[in-house]
Amino acid sequence: MARSLVLSGLATGLAAAPALAQQPETIKLDEISVSAPQAPRGVGAPADGSATSGGGGGPSGVQGYTARVSPTATKTNTPLIETPQSVSVVTREQLNDRNVQTLNEAINYTPGVASNVFGYDPRFDAFYIRGFSVTNIGIYRDGLRQPSSPFGIPRVEPYGLEAITILRGPAGGLYGLGSPGGIVDLTSKRPTAVPFGEVWLQGGNYDRAQGNFDLGGPVEGSDGQLFYRLTGLVRQSSTFLPGSIDDRAFIAPALTWRPSADTSFTLLTEYLNNTVPGNSSFYSNYADPRFQKTKLFSGDPAFQNFNTEQYRIGYAFEHKLTPDIVFRQNFRYYHVDADLRYTQIDALSADLVRASRSTGRITNVLDTISLDNQLEIRGATGPVQHDFIAGLDYTYSTYGQRMGFGAAPDLQIGGLVRPNYGAQFITAPTLGTASRLTQSQLGTYVQDQARFGRFILTLTGRHDSVATVNESAGDPTSRTASSDRAFSGRVGLNYLLTDELVPYVSYATTFAPQLGLDRLGQAFQPTKGNQLEGGVKFNVPGTSVFLNMAVFDIAQTNVLVPDPVNPILYTAAVGEVNSRGAELEATANLGPGINVTAAYSHVDIRTTKNPGSPETVGLALSGIPGNTFRLFATYAFPTASPLSGFSFGGGVRYAGTSPANDVIGSYRNSTVTLFDAVAAYDFARVDPRLKGMRLQVNVSNLLDRNYFNCQAGACYRGQPRQILGSLIYRW
């Protein structure tokens, strides 16, 4: 089945991007949390402890793992317990404790997320939420959509984030085009009113060496009006893939100007240069079960680097016209320059001595401008309290792509024992004609959160106009254009049984344009999704324990599948997919350094309509585990203990079985259980002069489990054990 779930015009075909080297037939190939004391209130500090809303600042004032507020679900400072959808927040303390190195690692312990579908692939942060691909149209940065091109996918450095918010289910009512599975909003680190500093020196297996720094506070001589933040990272590392590297340089300056308690302007910038292997796959011959999962690396260090260079500049502006009327404007310009070079194995000789290979080179240049204007008004009509927001946003993206493919010398593999990687020179293929795609989106939205008695009714509506143009350089006849208009919305109802126990129900929709033409030469209709969700949220009284239970039913229509009339040459937007499931999440702060996060998810996603391949109707989609369980906890010994200064933690990640291919009688992926661990020591216990000095060791896949996950017949190897040792100093 053609598995194009919900891809925007800029992202058509991207769900298969992590499988690049496996598929030559398609393409050859309340929380700004820092370790600093609380600032006194005044002009230079926020007037209250609430979050900067509108997707502009993430949760504020959080210590530990439990967040109370996030603006992502409503673009207002609504408590999580009062939002009518499932929302998870990965706080800065979680990111620090697990010392995450990628976005996939950061969301590993979140319910509903399948982050290991493509195994170890440092090229992309590719994952699914509630069974739907989110990577290319569901990533937001500071409340603004982060579009991507097929290979110009903006990379995320987790050390530059304050928090990560995962909103599960359609979010079209506020954000426009997207995935039925949900969105992930990344909150950048921002200046603080308290001076602080932090330095990490890290080392690990595979010759990993890394240095991090994070500095911030008020600007001297600014009378409490200017604040800065400077965050950076440099890494040099190999990986377990033969001859491959994982190098990165990152720096993110930020500056806040707060001339009064009612006005703030924050400048957010970033530069990132990233080099990883261009192919992370291992050879599999899908027609021969003997070689379904081999340890024969498909790439070659002689020709395999994937370099991404990107930068962004933007701002978040907020002004209180009155205590109950607030205007916000968020803006960002993003540039990504990607150059992918790879070698892949196409076949083995009958005697298993040689492997025939091909090469590919793909370049993408992506430019994006995003703007979101919001006006929030709080008031009352009789006994009903309102929090009303109206907005207009605009996104313009353009990308150019060039591709070239060629042949590589045979690889001598010596009976699958000692391949001669890097022993031969590999010529780069010539790049072909450039293609160019532009897409513009204009959206208007309104939302009213009406509170009457113990009921909270959330009504959200949005209209989008999307225009897409695709053309090849020097060929005026290649130009194709399409335009789509769609209405998305959400209706949610919360009932406060008590101030701490809140059941809810909601219905939400979303859509996404799809590039290409059908058999009749007509543009594909947009794919659409809708969800019915119900659940219960519970803040355990007198504790920092938060529970969230939810059930959901998501339907996606107009999915691209083989055309019923000519399935060989054409696809048609006539398929349907359904995802049903349940989730349970618990986060708890049981004391300083004693934290727990636990999540269970059940996802059953199946094809419900496919006229071109009716035999697939009723089949579960491959690669998505039906059941997952995650648990991570830390414990710090109390001051009175002889072991004071020591802290320990660990996690378990269980993924159940799933089909390995989208065909009848497919073999199944095995269940996988992985363990993670952390141990740390604070040196202030031995000498108060060493306050702020900390030694921390993190181990992922502690037992070095060797495992694969297969999707659509392609198999991906999981990451082996990784050990990171860190010497941290905070002041």
Automatic annotation (TrEMBL):
Native source species: Methylobacterium frigidaeris
Biased composition (Gly residues): 52-61
Signal peptide: 1-21
Region feature (Disordered): 38-66
Keyword annotations: Cell outer membrane, Ion transport, Iron, Iron transport, Membrane, Receptor, Signal, TonB box, Transmembrane, Transmembrane beta strand, Transport
Subcellular location, principal: membrane
GO MF annotation: an example: signaling receptor activity
Any Gene Ontology CC annotation: cell outer membrane
The protein's name in its UniProt record: Ferrichrome outer membrane transporter/phage receptor
Gene designation per UniProt: fhuA_2
The UniProt record lists the keyword Ion transport: yes
